Amino acid sequence: MRIGIFFGGNSREREISFAGGRTVYDNLDKSVFEPVPIFVDSFNNLTLLNWEFVYKGSIRDFFPPVKYLNQIESNFQIYQESLAISALQASEMRNEIGIPISISELNQFIDFAFLALHGENGEDGRLQGLLEWIGIPYSGSGIFSSALGINKAHQKQFLKAAGFQTPNFDSIKKSDWDLMSVPEKEAIFITIEKNIGFPLVIKPANQGSSIGVSILIENTFDVFSMAIENAFFRKIIEFGYWSNINELQKEAYLRDLTDIRSGLGFPLKSNGIIFYDPDNLKNYLDLNEDFNSFWVLEATLNIENELLIEAFVDGKEFSCIVIEDKNGKPKSLPPTEIIKKSKIFDYKSKYLPGISRKITPIDVEDEILNQIRHEAEKLYSYFGFEVYARIDGFLSSKGEIFLNDPNTTSGMMPSSFFFHQAAEIGLNPSQFLTYIIWTSLKARIRKGIASEVSNQLLNQINAYLKSGADLAASKQKVAVIMGGYSTERHISVESGRNIYEKLSSSTKYSPTSVFLTGNDETFKLWKIPVNLMLKDNADDIAEKCLHFHEANIMLDIRAEFQEITSMFTSDVFEKPIQISIEDLKSKFDSVFIALHGRPGEDGTLQKQFDFYQIPYNGSGFESSNKTIDKYLTSEILKNAGLKVANHFLVNIDEYKLDNETILSKIITKIGFPMICKPSDDGCSSAVKKVNNKTELKAFIDTMFRNSTFIEDTLKQVLNISDKEEFPIKRTVLVEEFIQKGEAIHFLEVTGGLLTHFNSEGEIEYQMFNPSESLAENDILSLNEKFLAGEGQNITPPRYSNDPVSSKNISEKVKVELEKAAKAMGVAGYCRIDAFVKIFANNVIEVYIIEINSLPGMTPATCIFHQTAIEGMKPYDFIDKILEFGKERTAKIS
Question: Where are the alpha helices (DSSP H) in 745-827?
Fold first, then answer.
């Protein structure tokens, strides 16, 4: 059955749509579904997307294609709307990424449309109407309820009319606000203050994911007016400000401005001038500084015409997914409480790990929890939603239930509410997507929409579900180990989830999640159910493993959904179970280690798996034990004739004996600026650029501290945020900060590889074309490396504007990376980070920074961009990694 996944679009949520569409693409059960990616661009054109682009970190990584940018050293990635190109060029550009198609041609390519679009033209009923017109069944709600669900201001009026509790509210149209004089605007402010009061919330009426939202505590007109402008996507820039900031600050400001999630996005207009991209605006501002004026910059696309003002509710915030049972009756999944680190549950809070916490079910009395579920079901029916909806709300400090923001489309990132709550009743993402398609077909049949087609598709799914037990028994069993206790444990969970999901939707493997807890002295392994795997972060999962407890009401809720879960499995285990290495040997065919840092990358587990002859991914003990040590790695590579950063290892005992001497030695040998980092941890963990002796001493003192507490003075010097983790170590690695110098081009790259056994049983290396990494600051963060929509990666790198020269340089770089892999005895796969300096006549210097034997395997990691060039989907790559591990174990035994 061909499932067309519609993702991308022109809204400010297009990156989450893109990432969510990828999640659907990966998790659809390949035994019954064939995913067909339908990319919707900024101007609502449809492209049957080449599959390799599905695995880019963000839309800007592949569209517009690099050759249309002609900016080899620009630090900004732009969207299609920033290009001033002809219609013919636009059509040619789409041909670079796939096959352009029209709505009328969809029947030739798909049988069913899965809608992962957000915002205008995606969840407002327009696309649903077009699909009904051409007779293609689709997921989710129909035309009418989708149109109702898109506008927050109209929703409020309907909610109030129907008797639902809702905070006091008002709305303002942009056309009215712009015509008002300052006294008229002040009068509006006074009225709002009287009728709604402070604190209050101002938000765009047609945007999702808390984009453009402000919470006002201070009741002043200036703050109120600024929040209004923010919700209408306008900003004021003073030229005096611009002239007094440095180049890095200008770059950061423009990058924020470019971000359609938190900034304005381009093109921008001001004083009759349109700026299509950040470089264009920067050049103009640099040439036309005026200390006595300011400009109002305004978005020209993704604009907002109406905003909502509502009273702030002090209490618990929650979100509840409502689905339909087999008879079409709405049933609420267990609602989730949102614990925020700031007042606003904004875009990043929703989609990035560790910024907020999700507690499912919400921590309230059973009676109140059921009241929340009942109210959500009641609202679902009132708005005529179909298949599923996400309904947000608040439980006030007085016990009032305010339903706030019904959505007909939910975010579909791996840990979004959509999958998070389904896991609580025992459905993994692959199973839940199958059920959503099943209920969508039932909903279309009830309405008489594409009934004949829908009936045929429904029968196919039913036939598959009947054969499910036999298919499951024939699959290879894989234990996916994730979590741990390093500072990268949250990324490990993201990696492990991704591996689990790729395997669970395959026709070959049946994965089980295994979570690791403990410390360097001892650790434990826990077999965990899918609902724990989809908890917010590693610490939440660890807490459940070590001190498992669950609300009694969850037993009742799972019983309510048993008719649904029994369609897929009769074996739903609900609590973590401790297991041993021997259990891994007896119950699984192989193991996938998705850990980062220690243990995992240091060879500890690999040594035991070799002893028990358990197949696993990645390098063996000896290589892993060397690559985890960054200082030792640099020494080995240097002795092998490879270029590495000048480096210095600081030992805690020597430092505490005479820190001034050690500091002087470091400064003399390395010089400022320099990079400081742990010598034996994963990538980007506590890595800092250090510019002076004060910062250097603060870094070493922080790393060598006696407790987890970090003094405020050290935090300030090192710019350590409250949520940032900083490990305690006994050694610190200090490295030269590699810079461009006399090179004509300079870039940071990260390259992956895969190993194979040849006919003689020797290891051969398949080197991938690396990715160019663009950092927001001096150093790539964990989020930039691994999380969807955060990093800016270009694959292959922009070595040169000339294709022939670029290819030649690429081959030279790959040769150097292969030398590094061989010097360290890497096997299976790995990721190598490096800096590349390019001089005249394509002379290059490659500086190897570090080698990761268990690279991140999150959905957005650029190793998947690289395998795509080689013709491998992520699942294919994972399969080859597992097969190599089995072949290696067979040779050893």
Answer: 782-786, 803-823
**Under 8 Å between Cβ of 85 and 104:** no
852: three-class secondary structure by DSSP: strand
Q: At what angle do helices 143-150 and 126-134 cross, to 10 degrees?
A: 170
Q: What percent of the chain has pLDDT over 70?
A: 93
- For residues 416 and 605, give the distance between their C-alpha atoms in angstroms, rounded to a whole number: 31
| CA–CA dist 606, 616 (Å, integer) | 8
643: how many CB neighbours lie within 10 A of its CB? 16
- Structural element, H or E, at residue 405: strand 401-407
In the structure encoding, which two tokens stand for residue 720, read together?
A: 């350590």
Which of 73-87, 339-353, 703-717, 768-782 bottoms out in mean pLDDT, i.e. has the lowest? Answer: 339-353
Cα of 801 vs its chain's centroid, Å: 30
264 vs 274: CA distance, rounded Å:
13
Instruction: Quote the tokens at residue 110.
Output: 């798909």
Sheet holding 476-483, edge to edge: 577-579, 523-528, 509-518, 476-483, 590-593
Number of helical H runs and strand E runs in the chain: 34, 35
* Per-residue tokens: 78: 């732009």
CA 780 – CA 793 distance, rounded (Å): 11
- At 830, phi and psi to the nearest 5? -170, 175
SS3 content of the chain, % helix, strand, coil (to 5): 40, 20, 35
Strand partners, 322: 332, 389
* Closest residue by Cα to residue 457 from 477, 434, 480, 482: 434
**How far apart are alpha carbons 236 and 252 in whole angstroms?**
16
Residue 865 near residue 60 (C-beta atoms within 8 A): no
- List, for residues 435-471, the tens digit of each pLDDT value: 999 999 999 999 998 889 999 999 999 998 988 767 7
Nearest to 591 by CA among 676, 671, 500: 500
Cβ atoms of 862 and 852 within 8 Å: the answer is no
The model's pLDDT over 385-442, given as tens digits with 9 standing for 90+, comes to 999 999 999 999 899 999 988 888 888 887 789 999 999 999 999 999 999 999 999 9
User: Of the candidates 686, 684, 834, 823, which has an alpha carbon nearest to the alpha carbon of residue 752?
Assistant: 834
Place of tokens 């001190």: 547
Residues 788 and 663: their CA atoms lie apart, in Å, by 39
Q: Answer whether residue 287 shows pLDDT above 70.
A: yes
Query: What is the DSSP pairing of strand 200-204 with strand 306-311?
Result: antiparallel
Residue 838 and residue 844 in contact, taking contact as beta carbons nearer than 8 Å: yes
Cα distance between residue 9 and residue 41, in whole Å = 5
Q: CB count, 10 Å around CB of 658? A: 11
Task: Render pLDDT for 382-393 as a digit per residue (tens, 0 to 9).
Answer: 999 999 999 999
